UniProtKB/TrEMBL annotation:
Removal of H(2)O(2), oxidation of toxic reductants, biosynthesis and degradation of lignin, suberization, auxin catabolism, response to environmental stresses such as wounding, pathogen attack and oxidative stress. These functions might be dependent on each isozyme/isoform in each plant tissue. This is Peroxidase. It comes from Citrus sinensis (Sweet orange). Ca(2+) 2 binds at residues 247, 250, 255. Residues 1-29 form the signal peptide. Disulfide bonds join 40-119, 73-78, 125-323, 204-231.
């Protein structure tokens, strides 16, 4: 009888502990607030100050930090694989067509150098990607997001996966919703994340099919004329500075003007406009257009979820000495 009671108690304890055990063995649970409190106490302050300094010199860096987070985290893991340059058999994710228009990677090196001076080989490039995005969002008038740290860096790039995992500029809304759902972000969170387009700009290469030979009838006519002034030819040079902003009114502020524009048929990309017309997403668009606080709340939640997508932790990956190269390749490039 005692043996059976003991067995029953052990089983009960096991099932009570099972959720904790599952959490412990997932990478997400290994992330924690203030991960560098002992190993590099000034780490988060250094990143914040560097982001501020860079923003004051090059305002568009803040937008780059936000885009970096999305491109890095949605491709398998938040592990700074995006930052790897071509070396030692690695093909850079930056070479993908999905990375068209991305820039300012060199300033990640500026942040890393400041951290290396304070705490050599301690702070991961993956955490730089996450925390620079957090500080960039603040510089762009968005909410301050509490973010966990402790990510480690990938030793490899996922170039062959980029096209499969990152939606392109004119994929359907269903494709976009599916991509984010695979990282644990629900429809409401996806609508909020796309609010980052509030500070986005799109090259005319990705817009002209909505303007020529005739303007897409789903576009507000006045907005269509604005876009044609920004993109005056149906065959723009990809290397030329020809682009339009999603939110001409507050182009460098993450706010709910993006959603107000959508309700006025001023969505820059097809997926933007579909947000306002699709029954799955339209109620959230209307609610965010009416309430900037609600938008910021949902945006914070979604960015937090994205930043914790399948991170490398503990003894996985490495802490890169140089964000551009896996440690095994640093000797080959210096």
């Amino acid at each position: 009888m005692a043996t059976k009671r003991h067995h029953h108690l052990c089983s009960s304890y096991f099932f009570l502990l099972l959720p904790l055990l599952l959490q412990f063995y997932s990478g997400e649970s290994q992330l924690q607030f203030n991960y560098y409190a002992e190993s590099c106490p000034k780490a988060e302050d250094i990143i914040k100050q560097q982001v501020i300094n860079l923003y004051n010199k090059h305002g568009n860096t803040a937008v780059s930090w936000v885009r970096n987070l999305f491109h890095d985290c949605i491709v398998k893991s938040c592990d700074a694989s995006l930052l790897l340059k071509k070396a030692g058999g690695i093909v850079s994710e930056q070479a993908s067509e999905r990375s068209f228009g991305m820039r300012n990677f060199r300033y990640v090196d500026t942040i890393k150098e400041a951290l290396e001076e304070e705490c050599p080989v301690t702070v991961s490039c993956a955490d730089i990607v996450a925390l620079s995005a957090r500080e960039g969002i603040v510089m762009l008038g968005g909410p301050r997001i509490e973010m966990k740290t402790g990510r480690r860096d990938s030793k490899e790039s996922y170039f062959t996966e980029v096209d499969k995992l990152i939606p392109n500029h004119n994929d359907s809304l269903s494709t976009v919703l599916s991509a984010f759902q695979s990282t644990g972000i629900d429809v409401e969170g996806t609508v909020a994340l796309l609010g980052a387009h509030s500070v986005g700009r799109v090259h005319c290469v990705n817009l002209v099919h909505r303007l020529y030979p005739t303007v897409d009838p789903s576009l507000n006519p006045e907005y269509g004329e604005y876009l044609k002034r920004r993109c005056p030819t149906p065959n723009p040079d990809p290397k030329a500075v020809l682009y339009a902003r999603n939110d001409p009114e507050t182009p460098m502020i993450i706010d709910n003007n993006y959603y107000k524009n959508l309700l006025n048929q001023k969505g820059l990309l097809i997926v933007d406009q579909q947000l306002a017309s699709d029954p799955r997403t339209a109620p959230f668009v209307e609610k965010m257009a009416a309430d900037n606080g609600y938008f910021h709340q949902q945006f914070s939640r979604a960015v937090g979820l994205l930043s914790e997508n399948n991170p490398l932790t503990e003894d996985q990956g490495e802490i890169r000495k140089d964000c551009r190269y896996a440690n095994s390749n640093t000797n080959n490039v210096y």
